[in-house]
Amino acid sequence: MKKKLLIIEDDPGLQSQMRWCFEDTEVHIADDRESALSLLRRVEPQVVTLDLGLPPDPGGSSEGFALLDEILRLAPSTKIIVVTGREEKENAVKAVGNGACDFYQKPLDADILSFVVNRAFRLYELEKENIELNRSQYSSTLKGLIANSPQMLKICRTVEKIAPTDVTTLVLGETGTGKEVIAKALHDLSIRSDKAFSAINCAAIPENLLESELFGYEKGAFTGANQTKKGKVELTDGGTLFLDEIGDMPMPLQAKLLRFLQERVIERVGGVREIPVDVRVVCATHQDLQTLIANGSFREDLYYRVSEITLNIPPLKEREGDAVLIAQSLLHNFSNQLDRPNLNFSDDALAAIREYPWPGNVREMINKVKRAAIMADGKRVTAEDLELDEPCNTTDSVLNLRQVRETAEKQAIEHALQIAQYNMAQTARLLGVTRPTLYNLTDKYKLTTHDQNTD
Ligand SMILES: Nc1ncnc2c1ncn2[C@@H]1O[C@H](COP(=O)(O)OP(=O)(O)OP(=O)(O)O)[C@@H](O)[C@H]1O
Questions:
Q1: Residue list, ligand 1 pocket, CB within 6 Å
Q2: What is the Å distance from ligand 1's center to 385 Cα?
């Protein structure tokens, strides 16, 4: 680390005396607030010495204190040493109370000053190391994936091993467990990382459009096909294709996917030409493919093709210690995004996070923590802000069975909407009702059918 020191001092004599105290350090000098702030922004010094008596108040300390606040606001990790006159002990103590790391009293003694400044450089370095250490605790080695549980660390190791190969990988896990994050990590750690990564959700695209979305179409293939269009597979040539919700792929298309995986060629809809494509395929589903195979809605031969390696991502509630770790990291990010620095969970919030079953896994946690970060009064996020209450089962406070039934129904729909990210078809499937029934129910309970967090 190149040591950079900013000396804020309006006395030219002291400026040059101080400069000579720091031979192995890059020294910058400012004599008022404006020049100090411009150097702070440009040079980003780790340590600043600040004379409290600056113009336009050289005999007082108001300008020095204002500058102290401003530096800490702009660059909170900077170590500031206030320089005061012999009679200004009170100001020195006040400045440390306001966030300065140390103080130094004139007259100047080169040895003591360099000792104090070097100690501030060391402190800066230690704090930085500490932050790095905390950050590395948050991380698995995979980008975008926070994990420290043995279960997830084992998955990370497997991902690192299989990423450089081209094996077709099946990622299994409940909704919101991070299957797409894993697929992206497989891509990022492979030699394909500089090529495209495309994700396609087989459940979200109507059956009749999925084939042309995947394989493209030739001009004139169907009404409205005014020009030839490449599909996702072709556009991903050289890269990685992530097929999410593979269990929802219609049977006729499963046959085409199988052919592609076996022969590595595609045919556009309405085309006659075979086009070779080099794509690594990663599939995912939250469904039990064995059950789908048993009831005839998923091809067994395709299952074996897509599952050369299978990764089972455990639900969040089964990962030891990860819920709190992820929640803390999310809160840290949201508090920065929302410009509400230093938000922390209260003890009851941490206990609630540990206890809650997280049916919507990390996706649900993102919504809850974001909401809580917005709602929290002051710096503490409480259990109440998180709204993690489980449905209340007591009968003391309910009117009748109809009311119990309706409350449970409403909660189940709200939950399913959140898990399915407000995709109505997926929500209906989760709840085992038809789409019209779901719309009737959301009307009945006046439930919003879109994600308010993304408004
Ligand atoms: N371990 C984790 N650390 C941090 N963020 C995570 C982690 N796991 C998942 N996420 C985040 O949670 C959200 C949901 O993850 P992702 O889309 O990968 O889940 P999924 O299992 O593919 O969900 P679905 O089955 O519903 O498609 C994303 O915003 C993702 O970045």
A1: 144-147, 173, 175-181, 244, 284, 286, 326, 362-363, 366
A2: 22
40 in Cβ contact with 6 (< 8 Å): yes
Alpha carbons 172 and 298: distance in angstroms, whole number: 15
Q: By C-alpha distance, which of 270, 370, 359, 284 is closest to 315?
A: 359
- Going from the Cα of 182 to the center of ligand 1, the distance in angstroms, rounded, reads 9
Looking at the domain covering 4-137, what would its CATH class be?
A: alpha beta
Summarize pLDDT for 211-232 with one digit per residue, the tens: 999 999 999 888 888 999 999 9
- CA of 156 from ligand 1 middle (Å) equals 14
Return the ligand 1 atom nearest residue 285 CA: 25
Complex ipTM: 0.98
Hey, what CATH class is 322-454 in? Answer: mainly alpha
CATH T-level topology, domain 150-314:
Rossmann fold (3.40.50)
Q: What is the pLDDT of residues 163-219, one digit of tens each?
A: 999 899 999 999 999 999 999 999 999 999 999 999 999 988 887 789 999 999 999
pLDDT digits (tens, 9 = 90+) for 365-395: 999 999 999 988 888 899 999 998 654 444 4
Tokens (6 digits) for 94: 């006040």
29 neighbors 19 (Cβ within 8 angstroms): yes
Contacts of 297 (CB under 8 A, 6+ apart): 247, 251
The rounded Å distance from CA 74 to ligand 1 centre is 33
In whole angstroms, give the CA distance from residue 189 to residue 280.
13
